[in-house]
Amino acid sequence: MFKAEHDSILNSRSTLGDFKVQELPLPPDFVWGTATAAYQIEGGAFQDGKGKSIWDNFSHSVPSRTNGEHADVACDHYNHMPQDVDLMSSYGVDVYRFSIAWTRLIPLGGREDPVNETGIAFYNDLIDRLVSVNIKPVVTLYHWDLPQSLHERYGGFLNSEEFQADFVRFSRLCFSRFGDRVKKWITFNEPYIISVFGYHSGVLAPGRSTLSGGDSKTEPWRVGHSIILAHAAATHAYALDFQPSQKGSISIVLNGHYYEPYDTHSEADRAAAQRRMDFYFGWFGDPIFLGKDYPPAMRAQLADRLPQFTAEELSFIRRSAPTNSFYGMNHYTTKYARALPEPPADDDWTGNVEELPTNSEGTEIGPVSGMSWLRVAPKGFQSLLKWVWDRYHLPIVVTENGCPCPGESTMSLEQVVNDEFRVKYFGLYLDAISRAVYDDGVTVEGYYAWSLMDNYEWSAGYGPRFGLTHVDYTTLVRTPKNSAFYLKQSFQRRRKDGLDKESLE
Ligand code: PNW
């Protein structure tokens, strides 16, 4: 039955007509799962003693910044959790990546502030239910929901020392209460987005920029610096006091596009593409995974805007790198990079690069999805896996990948469930992983689809739908989309080393 279902999905028409999914093999021990984040799905925003985060504040204080929408209820996962675990179990996932709302555990956030046992009980229940159906929990400690009181007390990430002390206390609380069952930890989700979108453009919480009381020239770099130091302190605490008995691993998740040169014949554009990736991945990856200063291209352009590491800090970062680490990669798309002819603007954060969807020959990087920035470009994904592997030599876990289908937000449920575009996107991106593994020798350990279900897409509100599961935000009814069954089947086939490959063609 599944094969027929599967074939009809793969052969159906879609706007990705020129692409063919080959259903290439993946290693037998490759793991797959789904991912979510607390604020995007939980709801229960003020339930059972939860404190206010910067997202509760951001979405309520100026609703126009989030399409007039907030996530007080969202998917109401807080009150539908057992059903959501059953859903995942029916998809056959190996792992589930979710984040813990800091303000559910410590409503005011700080190291002297009281712990809310009701919040701890919720995550204990979730973890127990996952374990009981053989799904391994993967926990993100910070997915963008800073306690509002820490933002108000000392500026949150802008105060490296205070933030680090409070983050380590929160992390230790999580390790000690959940670490007997949680064996994979992620400190921060996407420090790049936290820094640039939260403190340069201000389109995400806390919404700071030069135009709104901040300083876009310096604050993003201070925030990034704080995240690197807090990450090192938390991993150090884990390695010293928890890892010996709990035997888990811990790392960070970095996001970023791959960049192709706008004009392959232009040396300046080729250098721009590499520099753009230094500014994206090297910003965090070089200090954290190599124990080195920020990339030379960043120092050269940003000079004093970029904080300095002391020798002790770099040595601490190096020493705090835990064994059995991994590189957590969130990846969605590829762009063209074009060198700007003028010197950089004084608040440039890109490496003085223009980003484009079309190259000098007029060729588009790939078909556009339901969001304009997200185009389908699996070759760039394969190239990025190799780029990251060559630079850091760490096993890669793809911690997020997925897309909204074109027009999905205005379709009927019947149309939504038949999500051919997403099926093909997943198929092509999994083929790219296979090529990276078998053709390029990259170690990739797992793949977590974003997302388990449609959810609150930050400043875009409930418009874009990334889910394997449709959520009706009025009735809260969950309906699996075809892509959920496709992934289930595809992983079964691919992990058999392609034994069934021919039968699909
Ligand atoms: C990630 N970009 O964010 C986040 O981790 C998720 O919470 C989010 O829902 C998902 O991707 C889909 O957007 C990103 O503009 C947001 O390049 C924006 C970008 C990249 C990642």
UniProtKB/TrEMBL annotation:
Entry's EC annotation: 3.2.1.21
Xref: Pfam families: Glyco_hydro_1
PROSITE patterns from the UniProt entry: GLYCOSYL_HYDROL_F1_2
Domain of life: Eukaryota
Family under the similarity heading: Belongs to the glycosyl hydrolase 1 family.
Gene3D superfamilies, alphabetized: Glycosidases
Alphabetized UniProt keyword annotations: Glycosidase, Hydrolase
Name of the protein described by the UniProt record: beta-glucosidase
Keyword Isomerase appears in the UniProt entry: no
UniProt-listed GO biological process terms: cellulose catabolic process
Recorded GO MF terms: cellobiose glucosidase activity
